[in-house]
Specification:
With 223 residues, the protein is an alpha/beta fold. Helix content is 43%, strand content 16%. The chain has an eight-stranded parallel β-sheet with strand order 7-6-5-4-3-2-1-8. It binds pyridoxal-5'-phosphate.
Length: 223
């Protein structure tokens, strides 16, 4: 297996070059290392190199990997980027700094309750099903504005960004552009879009947070 620090350095350089080439400041795009399925031994070298922002897909896996590292690295930022069940909302609020996958009212309500109970406000993103795909999570683009309003007004959620995974096998540019439009229309600053295969295109369309796994760690082992 490749040393993940080599991949990290390479990706950070590519992000910086692409940001500058697309007329944006080099510091405008943040890298979330998507660390699902990676054991702690593969994460520590990245932490030692100074990287602090990681995304996980499952609450249980994250609970097994991160609490000790959170104590060792207090400036760690842990982001939930996978689908979240409402009955895991409290565990998620306890563990994560950002939840990127708010996509239904029942979850917004569960997060609101958990944040109140734990007295821990967690920054949130709304996930948008930008290609209207039946198998994908996220609110439909047409319903995003109403959903964002309800999250803010009824549940006092701090919606600081939008997240999407565009359809596979077609050019992602128009979908990234559409997510950016929805963000602008709703006064939202951050855009979590772009993965290993398409982060350059995402940055050119205004991404502020790219989520990258494979290009840092190499291919994931199939389960
Ligand atoms: C795994 C994952 C990523 C990273 O995907 P790669 O193609 O490995 O870079 C990004 N976002 C989400 C939601 C993921 O589950």
């Amino acid at each position: 297996m490749e040393d993940p620090t080599t991949g990290l350095k390479q990706i950070l350089a590519e992000i910086k070059d692409t940001s500058i080439a697309s007329g944006r400041g080099p510091a405008k795009v943040q890298l979330t290392v998507a660390s699902k399925t990676q054991p702690i031994e593969r994460l520590v070298p990245l932490l030692k190199l100074g990287h602090r922002v990681f995304g996980e897909n499952r609450v249980q896996e994250a609970q097994a990997k991160w609490p000790q590292l959170q104590l060792e690295y207090p400036d760690l930022e842990l982001r939930m980027i996978g689908p979240l069940q409402s009955n895991k909302a409290e565990d998620a609020v306890r563990l994560f700094d950002v939840i990127e996958t708010v996509d239904r009212i029942s979850l917004a309500k569960a997060l609101y309750k958990a944040m109140n109970k734990l007295k821990k406000p967690v920054r949130c993103y709304v996930e948008v099903n930008i290609g209207n795909e039946t198998q994908k999570a996220g609110v439909a683009p047409e319903e995003a504005a109403a959903f964002i309003s309800r999250c803010r007004d009824e549940f006092s959620l701090h919606i600081e960004g939008l997240m999407c995974i565009p359809p596979a096998n077609c050019p992602p540019g128009p979908f990234f552009a559409k997510l950016r439009d929805i963000a602008i229309q709703n006064g939202i600053e951050n855009l979590s879009m772009g993965m290993s295969a398409d982060f350059g295109e995402a940055i050119r369309h205004g991404s502020t947070h790219v989520r990258i796994g494979t290009a840092v760690f190499g291919s994931r082992q199939p389960n």
